[in-house]
Amino acid sequence: SSSDAPHDEL
Amino acid sequence: MNIFRLVGDLCHLASILLLLLKLRASKNASGISLKTQELFLAVFVCRYLDLFTTFYSVYNSVMKVLYIALTALIIHMMRAQSPIRGTYDASQDTFLHVKYAVAPCAALAALTMLVQGFDVRDLFWNFSIYLEAIAIVPQLIVLQRYREVENLTGHYIFFLGAYRALYILNWIYRSFHERGYKHHYVVYFAGIVQTALYVDFFYYYAISKYRGGKFSLPS
Questions:
Q1: I need a surface site. Which of B14, B39, B208, B211 has the fewest CB within 10 A?
Q2: What is the tally of structural domains in chain B?
Q3: What is the structure's pLDDT at B87?
Q4: Shortest Cα–Cα distance, A5 to chain B (Å)
């Protein structure tokens, strides 16, 4: 994913 | 994982369970905004698309599925289950037309893609971040209109607000303790806006706990 978004967070 | 995020997630789960308990126990949806619940369902579905693409942990997946499933259950109870269905007062739940919430958030998410580069999953994820920030507004407005707040409804919103406040502490913790942690300013901004929306509620909630009386909002 390009944004390094914290997808591990809920 | 850190203590702030864990307790935050558990507060979030507790809030959803409290709302389910309120609906089951009182068989009554008065004081509850269906719009807020539907916006939250849209938030979860859009944000957790990664359930299909990336596995993080059993904890992470279970919580995501629970948030989606339990919110869908709340909506089902309010829309379709007698006698709860008859107690939902749509005329009090009119503040925000859903399209006026969704359209600006979709536009903002598209704009964010111009900055970050386009990625379908990120588009939905950013949309969910913006939408979550305002999803509680219809619920807060309904509370204002009813004034007298049932205990379980009050606890529901308290735990939801606590979850948001704990996530801010989680970001501060992560930025200090995780090597190479990337700041995500969109998330910080939306998270702070969202938490600020609860400040007024927290104030009156705290006063009513202190006095030990009924929880009601000023006119």
A1: B211
A2: 1
A3: 96
A4: 7
Contacts 24+ apart (CB under 8 A), B110-113: B112/B186
Residue in A with minimal Cα distance to B121 = A1
Averaged pLDDT of chain B: 94
Q: How far apart are CA B3 and CA B89, in angstroms?
A: 39
- Please give the angle made by the CA atoms of B41, B124 and B33, to the nearest 5 degrees: 25
Q: Report the C-alpha gap between B105 and B135 in whole angstroms.
A: 11
Structural domain of B24: 3-216
Amino acid at B108: L
- DSSP category for residue B148: B
Touching B: A residues 1-10, CB under 8 Å: 1-10
B67 touches chain A (CB under 8 A): yes
State whether the Cα torsion B173-B200-B13-B53 is positive or negative.
negative
CB contact under 8 A, A10 and B67: yes
Nearest in space to B41 (alpha carbons), one of B69, B17, B63: B69
CB-count exposure of residue B159 (10 Å: 0-12, 13-18, 19+): buried
Give residues with Cβ within 8 angstroms of B6, minimum separation 6: none
State how far the Cα of B129 lies from the Cα of B124, in Å rounded to an integer: 9
Query: Residue B182 gets which letter from DSSP?
Result: P
pLDDT digit string (tens) for B24-60? 999 999 999 999 999 999 999 999 999 999 999 999 9
Query: ipTM, 2 decimals?
Result: 0.83
